[in-house]
């Protein structure tokens, strides 16, 4: 997918998902208590009143001594639990298993690439094969780049962050390598033909940002070029053209944003043959608003007439496909709605911005577009209704009158119904596309579809990784404080007693228009469901399950709505007697970690456990830490008094108080997380301990925002989480 937004949304991985029989209810949950003014009487409302600012010194000696001491205590507790080793061994077997679907990526010549990790290749290998070979049970892979071998040879903790190759030949590539899992990467030129890095080739130093091919000797780069070149969010503010043989200082500046922007970046918009149709620069004014500029042949730029909230999704048969996340009147006078998918004839539109657009899709209130991509001749869309997906193919057909509106015809791919679907890599040679199909209890399958015929055949299927015999999935709804019905899925054994005794984990995210869709998780199934646990996924506002409006309903001053949605689901689980407070735990990471903090400080009476992963927690300082300023469009700006007032109402760090029924929580983060500052997690744990509450805290010294740099670290994290949840929710009484 081509994006106008320069910065990927802050995401946390959902643990599991699946298709289910829908059941709904109109049960009304008691309204949660509304947040009051900061409960701790001014604690940490300024730098002067925050005694734990020193924990924001990521690798400061005092901070790291604190981290090591807490790691020793928490690992001793959790790894000393008799359940830990079995859970660890099961998690390690799953994450290192070779019995997984290798995610395929089409190359321009029709071959297929894959990045693979297992017990032998912990850091992973970039490899390739033919499409025919990929379709077999045992593909014949050729290694392109071995990251484990590279890390050993160079004495680095390299984490592979992808590669972009110059079309159409795709022999020269830009490989992105992260030291320990950070978002910041070094970029090195690589020759696929010789399987070696290019001696004297492009080699960009570590930075956040990007680099895109213009031609074999020219890159469009957005990097840290030195003082004054970054936004307040810590992302590039400048785009330069870099010629082969030039130093970064010699590159030509073609665009400069503003310090208050999120970031700027650039890329070449190419047709299916790899020919550049326009060179574009994205200016991310905020996380959701931006501008797209065309880079002209003479080095000047021209701002394109697009909505501030929009995404460029694809170029199909000369048609530029765009989604708009706001109501918008085009220069042609046409009115479009939030969530619409529209298209222009690219060259006509570039010449005349008043060229009429064609409406391709207008989703209903309970529909959402979860993925758009293009094959050589067709647009392919994953369209969800009530959190269940189908894949549709749209084809532009030339009207009889060339002045008339373009006509787009629609067909549906022949795929299973009532499942979660995802559009994957698409071929530029023809109309083939990979599509994933999954469910909470149904192992993932990968289909190879032909968008020209609508047919789809199973390419690969996973065997079951846990025993789902007798398990089922229900979909319920909970009534939030303002009356909005919030859907949620419950995955459980079919003979579950409705007596409130079931150990239950409630997962949530609720932000950045990121949807929690049904999908198979072997680790959740093996480590929790098989052992009698119940897994619940809340589709709260702030997410994208029902499109942009569902997300925008919980933005900024309305953020508390998302917290109330999550709390309403927790209460509904108790009201239905699925579980009860002693057996209910919550889990979420990143933005979801903020969710956990809000539940902890607003409705601790509902829960007995909280897994708080790489969290946001101090919302009065989030914008001053690492990439935090880029999320002001989501939360508001604490430096503006009116906006600070609503943030202060729910910021978990400031609301932590003595005398509350907080359960022992498990907080974990990563020293190398350069997206969400580890200071959030550290300060949360320190403040809880100061107030006299027991806390388990673990910080991985590598791993980035995913909190694990390799598969062994991933297995350890999973085992720690489910050991903790077992102690809190399965033991009677819960161990303290």
Structural overview:
This protein has about 725 residues and is of the alpha+beta class. The protein has 4 domains: about 20-80 and about 470-730, 3-Layer(aba) Sandwich (Rossmann fold), CATH 3.40.50.1820; about 110-205; about 215-300, no CATH class; about 305-465, 7 Propeller (Methylamine Dehydrogenase, Chain H), CATH 2.130.10.120. About 20% of the residues lie in helices and about 30% in strands. The longest helix is centred in the last third of the chain and has 20 residues, at about 710-730.
CATH architecture level-2 label of the largest domain: 3-Layer(aba) Sandwich
CATH topology category name of the largest domain = Rossmann fold
CATH class of the largest domain reads Alpha Beta
End-to-end Cα distance: 48 Å
Mean pLDDT over the residues: 90
> By helix and strand content, what is the structural category?
alpha+beta
Radius of gyration: 25 Å
Strand content: 25-35%
- Give the tally of structural domains: 4
- Give the overall shape: globular
Counting H and I runs of at least 4 residues, what is the number of helices? 14
Largest sheet: 9 strands, mixed
Unreliable stretches (pLDDT < 50, length at least 5) are 1-40
The strand count comes to 40
Strand order of the largest sheet: 1-33-34-36-35-37-38-39-40
The CATH superfamily name of the largest domain is: Alpha/Beta hydrolase fold, catalytic domain
Tell me roughly what share of residues is in helical segments: 10-25%
